[in-house]
Design goal:
Number of domains: 1
Strand order of the largest sheet: 3-2-1-4-5-6
Number of helices: 11
Pfam family, one: vWA-TerF-like
Shape: globular
Largest sheet: 6 strands, mixed
InterPro entries: vWA_TerF_C, VWF_A, vWFA_dom_sf
Strand content: 15-25%
Protein name: VWA domain-containing protein
Order of helices and strands: HEHHEEHHHEHEHEHHH
Mean pLDDT: 92
Domain VWFA: 30-244
CATH architecture: 3-Layer(aba) Sandwich
Low-confidence stretches: none
Distance between the termini: 40 Å
Organism: Variovorax robiniae
CATH topology: Rossmann fold
CATH class: Alpha Beta
Structural class: alpha/beta
Length: 246
């Protein structure tokens, strides 16, 4: 049965949770959610669990993002799988994974590489590859115009995965370069451990990089039915609170 949520009540709860940790003015930032679509996660997509998980994150987008949306990305393995699905909003969050992701995105039921979708998200939020794109001579002949560079947007990216990745060195390189550039981005990795696996790599990058955090979700079906206050308390640790205050 799909989870229903009073989004207004949940956004108010987030405001109160932020006030408890000393944030009295709502941060303004773009929200992104990166969702693993590798084969091992297919059961949770099919039974609606990951839609429920996105539902529980929707109040964060409604609260933080000036456009009241979350940009949703998907990935499995290789650069070809990294994909911007679109926006999750108050109008379309119900059934989002079924309607927009299952068997509709590139790399559906593939393996697992983190780096390419991280790179895509950083491009979308303006932190890498930010030069203007020229239309070219033939493009101009057909009325195409130059694309302006993407604006750099302070962003919180929540990265949801159920498995270990095959591209650890490349992932570390992208996170290291982002930290060195002082990108105004915080990566919060959620490791969904339904199969009982350990997330040693996510633990390590959470410790290694100042703009990267990690939470383990041991039972995602239990997690999505926690109270707003419990979810906010789990996600808002000292490091993320410090970044939100910055």
């Amino acid at each position: 049965m799909a989870l229903t949520l009073n989004l207004q009540k949940s956004t108010t709860s987030l405001t109160l949770s932020l006030q408890k940790v000393g944030i009295h003015k709502m941060p303004v930032l773009d929200m992104g959610v990166v969702l693993d679509v590798s084969g091992s996660f297919s059961d949770e997509h099919a039974d609606g669990t990951t839609t429920d998980l996105l539902t529980r994150l929707a109040p964060w987008g409604l609260s933080f993002d000036p456009d009241k949306k979350i940009d949703v990305f998907t990935f499995s393995n290789s650069a070809a799988s990294a994909h911007l699905v679109g926006s999750l909003t108050e109008a379309n969050y119900q059934g989002y994974v079924r309607n927009n992701i299952i068997e509709k995105v590139p790399g559906w039921c593939g393996a697992t590489d983190y780096s390419y979708v991280l790179e895509l998200a950083l491009k979308e939020f303006g932190w890498v590859d930010g030069a203007a794109k020229k239309a070219g001579m033939f493009g101009r002949m057909f009325g195409k115009k130059d694309e302006p560079p993407k604006q750099k947007k302070r962003s919180l990216i929540i990265f949801i995965t159920d498995g270990d990745n095959n591209d650890k060195d490349r992932t570390r390189k992208i996170l290291r370069e982002s930290e060195a550039r002082k990108d105004e981005v915080y990566f919060l990795f959620l490791g969904v451990a339904n199969g009982g696996g350990a997330f040693h790599f996510l633990n390590s990058i959470g410790d290694e990089f100042g703009n990267t955090g990690y939470r383990e979700i041991a039972d995602v079906r239990k997690f999505v039915r926690m109270s707003d206050e419990e979810i906010n308390a789990l996600l808002l640790d000292d490091e993320l609170v410090g970044w939100l205050k910055g």
